[in-house]
Design goal:
This protein is mostly helical and about 450 residues long. It is about 70% helix and about 0% strand. It is built from 23 helices and no strands. The radius of gyration is 22 Å and the shape is globular.
Length: about 450
């Protein structure tokens, strides 16, 4: 993009939004119509729970045989699918509508990148580069077309949560009511994806470490209290239905065992191709689902956790190799799919290059937010099998950092536009984070 074209899109935000959305949607729809019908039907455990919700009003039965009430997934996405099933049925029509929703939410996410850039104080051009490149390159493959889950919703939720955190850090927003509202927002986001919890933990630790005061401790307690209070209906429901306490999900033990055993591979796709490993998942085989049915979901999860930790204890070298491979997979993409690997590695490296530019050109607080999120979020994915959709909740942050690096290069190679006045694609060096974040609400309203 030339500087003049970028400046035009920065000044005409609705045009940029529609262009990115249309580009993304059309490319992914063109891929969807080529997918065989049998591939479109169903969406894993989420679809099975949705069918149970639509048919008998129970959040239950995510595996190969009916196993009763479940907390295998957080509620948001299965409830959304249940609504689609109610209206369009659970056959091909309903599945096709679900696929359109997958394509639509990913397209919405990418078209919001310029808005995210403005909210966090990046040059709008960083968001434009990130948005158009994400729209053009369906690097998540089937996850962006017909196998997507809750991750793009979690990405949008995380952007809002981090914006609220930045606003609260502005200096005049330490009111306990503001802290409680922020905690409640985190609690609501956990209904979408509990994988965001490590980021909240990291932000709390960062706030305590940097402020080192009783006020910081009070804010941390209030933040966590509000999040737990909002989560409590689901936690109590799980206690009643599953006869034991658990957090938002129960699938960790199963995933640990599925990912750490003799013959385990780095990715879910590779594990699925191995017959012995595939049969360890109760979604895939009736025999394993019968174990869940007889033991109960919580007991089964504890049993699987013990098996996984015993294997890790007995095979520390193999586990270390798997963890390293998962680290590479998470940040570089799947080596079995060269285009995905090349593109993912490319924009990840650009994002890494852009990180110091965030501190220099955007702000120290934004730099800290990025570092906390990018460091904390992937930790769980280094010990369980990988899949490319797991990175989606933080991928917008990598893309914006990469977009900032591209912007820096373009500014050096291309002269600024001729007309005088402020270049809207240029970094806002002279504006404080507080003043930018004070306009958060206005950015969203004026954009739409």
């Amino acid at each position: 993009m030339g500087r003049r074209f970028v400046a035009y899109l920065a000044a005409h935000r609705r045009v940029a939004f529609l262009a990115i959305f249309a580009l993304s949607f059309l490319i992914r729809f063109a891929l969807l119509v080529r997918v065989p019908q049998n591939e479109i039907l169903g969406s894993g455990e989420a679809s099975l729970i949705a069918k149970a919700l639509a048919s008998k009003g129970q959040f239950a039965d995510p595996f190969a045989v009916p196993t009763g009430p479940t907390a295998h997934l957080t509620p948001f996405y299965p409830v959304l699918l249940a609504g689609i099933n109610k209206v369009f049925g659970s056959g091909y029509t309903g599945s096709f509508v679900r696929c359109l929703l997958v394509i639509g939410i990913y397209s919405l996410l990418y078209s919001l990148y310029p808005t995210f850039a403005s909210i966090f104080g990046f040059p709008v051009s960083a968001g434009l580069f990130a948005g158009f490149l994400s729209a053009l390159l369906p690097v998540k493959r089937s996850a962006e077309v017909f196998r997507g889950w809750e991750e793009p919703y979690a990405a949008i939720a995380l952007a809002l949560l981090l914006a609220l955190s930045l606003k609260r850090w502005g200096g005049d927003n330490r009111n306990p009511r503001v802290v409680l509202a922020s905690g409640a927002a985190w609690g609501l986001a956990f209904y979408i994806s509990f994988s965001l919890a490590p980021i909240l933990f990291g932000l709390v630790v960062l706030d305590l470490f940097t402020r080192r005061s009783w006020t910081a401790l009070r804010d941390s307690v209030l933040l966590v209290f509000a999040a737990v209070a909002v989560m409590s209906p689901w936690l109590i429901r799980n206690r009643v239905e599953l006869h034991g306490w658990t957090l938002m999900r129960t699938g960790l033990g199963q995933n640990l065992r599925y990912s750490n055993h003799d013959g385990a591979s780095v990715s879910a796709e590779m594990i699925f191709q191995d017959k012995a490993s595939k049969q360890m998942n109760p979604y895939n085989t009736v025999a394993e689902a019968r174990k869940v049915q007889s033991m109960g979901e919580l007991a089964y999860g504890r049993y699987e956790s013990r098996l996984a930790f015993d294997w890790i204890y007995d095979h520390p070298g193999k586990f270390a190799v798997l963890a390293l491979q998962r680290f590479i997979y998470f940040w570089a993409g799947s080596i079995e799919h060269p285009p995905e690997f090349a593109i993912t590695t490319g924009y990840t490296l650009l994002g890494l290059i852009g990180l110091p530019l965030i501190k220099k050109r955007v702000g120290t607080q934004q730099f800290c937010l990025w570092c906390v999120a990018l460091a904390m979020f992937p930790l769980i994915y280094y010990i369980v099998q990988g899949t490319n959709r797991y990175r989606v909740p933080i991928d917008w942050m990598v893309w914006l950092s990469a977009g900032l690096a591209i912007t820096a290069v373009v500014e050096k190679l291309s002269p600024a536009p001729g007309p005088p006045g402020e270049d809207q694609s240029a970094p806002m060096k002279n504006r404080s984070s507080t003043s930018r974040m004070g306009k958060l609400h206005g950015h969203w309203i004026s954009f739409f």
